[in-house]
Write a structure and sequence with these properties.
- There is one protein chain.
- The longest helix has 21 residues.
- This protein has about 550 residues and is of the alpha/beta class.
- The chain is globular.
- Strands 3, 4, 5, 6, 7, 10, 11 and 12 form an eight-stranded mixed β-sheet that branches.
């Protein structure tokens, strides 16, 4: 299969920059421009786009010659805050030789965010047009999108790819558990359970060479009207047009054959993502380009598992803030010291010295305190020493002197002690404590705690392991995402969660902080998406059918 049987004379200009260690692809100092025939470029349609994690992976992928073959032509998302994030990123993607100086001045706190439409009207108009802030399934939205798809087909011919992940809250085990507690909830009328059909409609309309569809593992066991949702998903995807052949991306054989659901689960930590994130990812090739050899080419490469600390280390150190109107460095220090001394005293009373390692960790933290505040070391923004070079280059931007979306939450004084205990336990013992391990004076006064309904309500992210799955729930509850450093004693910031999700540091999230957390938690890790884009490109570029 050639990418196109006919050549057009018009060319798509793709600019890219040569990266160097410590410098992101778009932050380098010199630019080379490669002219790619329009019919060789691949148009990407990104639906249910969220903050653009999947699209970022495709848009930033470079082939072996340094060309960027994928071009995100349209992103569709209904959430306005996520659309604002997408517009800024699509705007910036047009400056392939390096983002504008005005953008870095804003990120570094030297100026307010400029009016991009005034400074760069052409680029901003294009970005605004590329992002459709609409809800799929609504008639007007589908008419607008259909018109855009027709434009894309005229422009790119056959060379298109569809990507996206229909909203997963109705499929997730947590979401289903929450819904089951609602007396008025009826899964048979929950339209979120059938949003994948909108994905299928766009697939049928576009008829792309390939598609990528991502969702939570809960979709494998979800049902509606007595029928398994996943079986219907597979049937519809395979039956569109002349048909699509589905390929598993995981290189690990977990048993089963054919379309056994286990074959489509991708574990992000197996592919260099510092997070234990298990998702169903379906990749389909149109039947006329599918081949036996494609299966091997599409397998993701296994990588050494990366720890949470490999990307959280060398970020700016920050104390938590205190809620309820009494926040200050002095008040925080007083609260911290009081909690530390209580835990140290408890540790000394534990039999056989079982609590001493925890007390020792906290004592070491206290030695780093100077006066009424922690003595933070000034250091350049970086990553941990065990972060691989390619991920390091992906995340860091050497033009940044501070990090946006990195403000800490405020915590109740009573939670400071709990966070301190949990993070110290994680460092001393190497796991996160359950409710039965807590000292009595730190136990929350909640019935769910007393009845052991939530034995791991407080969870620390361990230094020497991938983090737990970053989900949108981080927007509501920081207890499950406690920073591994006992000296900081707080939950993760949006930027720290974004690092666990492998978003570049120069990726700006718009909206309020709750909306930012939701965007990060719902995203596909861009560094994983880039690997998928790489595998797919090797099949498309091979241009052959066995």
């Amino acid at each position: 299969m050639a990418l196109a049987s006919a050549w057009q004379t018009d060319l798509l200009s793709i600019s890219y920059s040569q990266s160097r260690p410590g410098c992101p692809v778009l932050g380098a100092n010199w630019v080379r421009t490669v002219e790619i025939p329009m019919k060789q470029a691949i148009a990407v349609v990104d639906i249910f786009a969220g903050a653009g994690g999947l699209g970022e992976g495709f848009a930033s992928f470079e082939d072996d010659t340094g060309r960027r073959p994928y071009r995100v032509e349209v992103s569709v998302e209904k959430d306005e805050a996520a659309c604002e994030t997408l517009r800024v990123r699509r705007f910036l993607s047009q400056f392939a030789g390096g983002f504008p100086d005005e953008y870095y001045a804003f990120l570094n706190g030297e100026s307010e965010e400029p009016e991009w439409a005034s400074l760069f009207p052409q680029e901003w108009r294009r970005a605004t047009r590329e992002v459709l802030c609409r809800e799929l399934g609504r008639p007007w939205s589908m008419r607008v999108l259909s018109a855009r798809l027709e434009e894309i087909r005229r422009k790119y011919g056959d060379n298109t790819v569809l990507i996206g992940g229909p909203p997963c809250q109705a499929y997730s085990l947590v979401g289903r558990g929450r819904n089951s507690g609602r007396g008025d909830y009826d899964p048979n009328t929950d339209r979120r359970l059938v949003l994948y059909r909108q994905y299928v409609k766009v697939l049928e309309n576009l008829n792309p060479l390939a598609f990528v569809m991502e969702n939570v593992k809960g979709i494998l066991s979800s049902s509606r009207r007595g029928r398994a949702v996943f079986g219907d998903v597979l049937h519809r995807l395979q039956s569109v047009g002349s048909g699509y052949v589905l390929y598993p991306l995981s290189p690990i054989d977990r048993g089963g054959n054919g379309t056994d659901p286990k074959r489509f689960v991708v574990r992000a930590e197996d592919h260099g993502i510092p997070q234990a994130r298990h998702r169903v990812i379906l990749l389909g090739l149109r039947s006329d380009i599918a081949s036996p050899s494609a299966g091997a080419l599409l397998k993701l490469r296994r990588r050494v598992p990366r720890t949470a600390w490999s990307v959280l280390d060398r970020m700016p150190r920050q104390r938590s803030r205190l809620s309820r109107g009494r926040d200050s460095a002095g008040a925080w220090s007083e609260t911290y010291r009081g909690a530390a001394n209580e835990i140290i005293s408890w540790a000394r009373t534990m039999p056989n010295g079982s609590g001493r390692p925890i007390g020792t960790v906290i004592e070491e933290c206290l030695t780093g305190m100077n006066g009424s505040a922690l003595e933070w070391r000034k250091r350049r923004i970086g990553v941990g020493k065990h972060c691989p070079v390619d991920l390091r280059r992906w995340i860091l931007d050497d033009r940044l002197v501070c990090l946006r979306n990195n403000e800490t939450r405020s915590h109740m004084p009573s939670d400071i002690g709990r966070y301190l205990f949990v993070s110290a336990w994680g460092e001393a013992v190497g796991d996160s404590p359950t409710a039965s391990s807590f000292p009595g004076f730190l136990a929350p006064q909640h019935q769910s705690w007393v009845k052991n309904h939530f034995t791991d309500r407080f969870r620390v992210q361990l230094r020497e392991a991938p983090s737990s799955t970053v989900t949108s729930h981080i927007s509501k509850d920081g207890h499950y995402y406690i920073h591994p450093d006992p000296a900081q004693c707080r939950s993760l910031t949006v930027r720290e969660a974004a690092r666990l999700q492998t978003f570049p540091d120069n990726y700006l999230f718009k909206g309020n902080r709750t909306q930012q957390y939701v965007q990060v938690g719902n995203a596909v890790p861009p560094f994983l998406a880039r690997q998928i884009a790489d595998r797919l490109w090797r099949v498309l570029a091979a241009g052959r059918k066995d």
